[in-house]
Description:
Layout: E1 9-12, E2 19-20, E3 23-24, H1 28-37, E4 41-46, H2 53-63, E5 72-74, H3 75-86, E6 91-95, H4 98-106, E7 110-112, E8 121-124, H5 132-141, E9 149-151, E10 157-159, E11 164-166, H6 168-179, E12 184-185, H7 192-201, E13 208-212, H8 215-225, E14 228-232, H9 239-244, E15 251-253, H10 256-264
Parallel strand pairs: 1-4, 1-13, 4-5, 6-7, 6-8, 8-9, 9-12, 13-14, 14-15
Antiparallel strand pairs: 2-3, 10-11
Amino acid sequence: xxxxxxxxxxxxxxxxxxYLGDRLxxxxxxLLTLLKExxxxxxxxxxxxxxxxxxxxxxxxxxxxxxxEDEFITSAQATAYYLEKHYKNRFMYVQGxxxxxxxxxxxxFNITDVYSPDVDCVVTGFxxxxxxxxxxxLSRILLNKDIPYIATNPDLVCPTEFGSVPDCGSVSEMLxxxxxxxxKFIGKPEPLMPQLAMETWGCxxxxxxxxxxxxxxxxxxxxxxxxxxxxxxxxxxxxxxLAASPDKPEAVYRDCGEILELLKK
Length: 265
Ligand SMILES: [Mg+2]
C-alpha cells in the first residue's frame, strides 16, 4: 500500500495513463486539479525526443489539459542533464530532429550534424528526419570505440495513427549491425528522468511516484530510481502481462480514476 496522500512529486506517463490516443480519460483533469489544490507537483514524463516541450504543450492543450513549460520531463532534457554531468565540453555529433538539436544548442553544447574527424561524442534520438547520410556518418564515427555514444530512448517503435514507426532503439540496432556498438540509453526504463525530476524539484525518493501503463519502461524507471511505482491498467498492460513480468509495481490500480478516489477518501 502506498500512502498516496504523502506523495509530493507525481511523475505521469501520458498515453495509456492520462489519455488513450486522442481520447482524454474523464478523471484526468479532476486528478490534476486536486493535486494542484493540495500543493503537489506533477510532471508529464515522455521518452519521445523528437518533439519539444512546446509541441507537447500544444498536444495536451488540444486534449484539454492545460500544461506549462515546467510540467514536463523529457528524455531530451534528461539527455542534456547526463551530458552536462559527463561530457560537457565534447564536440557532439547529434542524430535527431531539429527540435533535439535546438534544445542541446540552447543548453550550450557544441554540436554538429555533419561528419567531422573532430567529433568526440555521439548523441542519437528519435529522429523523424533520419537520412542515410546520417547512418553513414555514425557508422564512420562509431568505429572509434573510445567515443561515448548516448541515445535518448530505447523504444523500438513509436505508435502512430496507423500502427508504428521505427524509434530510436530500432535505429540503434541498425548501427549495432554496422559498428558492433550499442549506446548508453537515457529515457525510461533508466532512472535518469525520475532522478532529474527529484533534483529539479528538491524531492526525495520516498515522496516521489511514477505512474504509468507499461511495466518495462514506466515502472522499471521508477524501480531503478528507487521511487514509488504505480501501474494503471488503462493502457498496454493486461493481467497476463503483469503476471508474467519479473518486475512488479508497488501498486496496481484500475486507472488514475481509482487514484483520484483514494486521494479524496
Ligand atoms: Mg504509456
